[in-house]
Structures are given as C-alpha cells and as structure tokens.
Amino acid sequence: xxxxxxxxxxxxxxxxxxxxxxxxxxxxxxxxxxxxxxxxxxxxxxxxxxxxxxxxxxxxxxxxxxxxxxxxxxxxxxxxxxxxxxxxxxxxxxxxxxxxxxxxxxxxxxxxxxxxxxxxxxxxxxxxxxxxxxxxxxxxxxxxxxxxxxxxxxxxxxxxxxxxxxxxxxxxxxxxxxxxxxxxxxxxxxxxxxxxxxxxxxxxxxxxxxxxxxxxxxxxxxxxxxxxxxxxxxxxxxxxxxxxxxxxxxxxxxxxxxxxxxxxxxxxxxxxxxxxxxxxxxxxxxxxxxxxxxxxxxxxxxxxxxxxxxxxxxxxxxxxxxxxxxx
Length: 327
Prior knowledge:
19 strands; two-stranded antiparallel ribbon
C-alpha cells in the first residue's frame, strides 16, 4: 500500500479518442445456407429469420443478422399474407429509425430522406438487422456494399458518398442513402437510391421495388420467412467495416529527483539499514519501481499499472511514466 501520494494536475492528464476498424465479409455461401439450412433459424411467430455462421444449435455458432419484411398501412389488405404482422414490423422499424411527424403519426421510410415529398416514400421494405458482434459501435460510412443476383445480372448496393453526405435527423443516429448502378468515383445516378443504412443501429432498409428478383405484389403475397428465403437465395456478397470507439485517459506520472527514492515495502529495511545499498552508508538511497497506482481524492485505489520490469530510481534520476486507461 502506498504511503506517499502525488497529486496530478490538469497538465498531467490527456484525453484521446481512437477509432478501430475491422473488415467484415459475409459471403453468399454462408447466407444461402452452407450447412443445409442448419445455420438458418426460423421462428413460430414468423416475423423474422435469423442467419448464423454455423449450425445454430452448435455452441460455437455466431448470430450474424436477422431478415424481415414489412409494409406501411398504405399497402394493407386482408388478402395479403401475414397482413397485420407485416404492418407491425414496418411501424416498429419506422418509429425507431424514422420517428414521428408533427401530427404524432409515424413517418414512412423515404429513399432520399426528404420527408417533405411523399412520392419517394418506401412503403414496402426489407430489413437487414446486423448483430452488435459484427457492427461493434457502428458501421463505418462509405464501406457498405451488398451484391445481389437479379436474373442473369448482378446489382451492387452501396452507401455512395455517405462519408460527407450522411443524415442526422433520425432518432437512431446517423444514416446514409444506398444506391445502385454506380461504381466508386462515378457520378450518382438520379433516382438510384434504393434504401437506407443506419450506422449506429446496424440496420439496412431496402425498398422492395429495388430487389428485382421479386415484385412488390409477390412480397405482399408471401410470408416473411419466404421473403427472407428469396433474399438469401440471390445473396452473392456483402462487405463493410465496423468501428470500435476506444476512449483513453492518459496520465503522465512524473517522479522528480527527490521523489520515490524510498520503498514502502517492509523488507526495504533490515536493522534500520537499506538493503539495496549493500550496507554502504555512502551510497545514495535507491528504489525499484514495479507498479503505479491511481488513487481517488480520498486515497482510494482505483487502478494499478504494472511495469514490464522494475526501474531503478535514485536522487540523480527523474522518470515520467505514461499510464493509459482505456474504456
């Protein structure tokens, strides 16, 4: 236990923020059911389907994402399969990701994020909800791409230009518009927006009309599990980078020449003599620093930093220790 304390000033403390990124590839072979659909989990309620990277009954399986489908009351019909559940799914996602208008009504998803124009509303949507295991704190902007098979051709959906053109008017945080048809560096075609990506929530919303393997009418007639199966069957590749925000407090612990030259360890003295001086009274006092403790104003130990090896400290030396606390 420490017997000598040194107060840290504001100049001894620094705050830093580091963003760590990890590439996440999700291949079509896994999504389409590599293990004979044993990695695809369906539920009796039928409101969404879960995809795992391994048979989901295995203890080593990791949940990757969920797929669901829903539409606004504008498409409601008693003739549609799972009509009430699809509307509930759409409203649930919309109220969390889009919010409410001035009248208290749930807003509809909009392909260009302009709620003043209703002609671009996405009334029927497929939802891909990625797990926190993959997205971490958020999906990195302008790294998302999803390639699907449309007939004999492939379409790639990207969050083009989202690094500078993302939106912030969502209760769930920042989001960007998904486009098709343009490669990175090419101009974005007018009207090519096909969905939205919510970066902190880790949710992708695609308008059903953009998924050319099926029509909106077929979506309304199929149950949610069937829609998820259709999407997985044309899934070719999916890539993005996640982001982990690492906040750090750095403490510069300074040991001046006249400080910490004596140890608080009881074995430091033997018969009133300092052991490390080897009985030579002419030698200056010395100690070996092995750890640094961070204490509260009430001298309560909060954290301990261990050195890789003991460092010798004498009145002729001064040391500065850089202690980083990550959280």
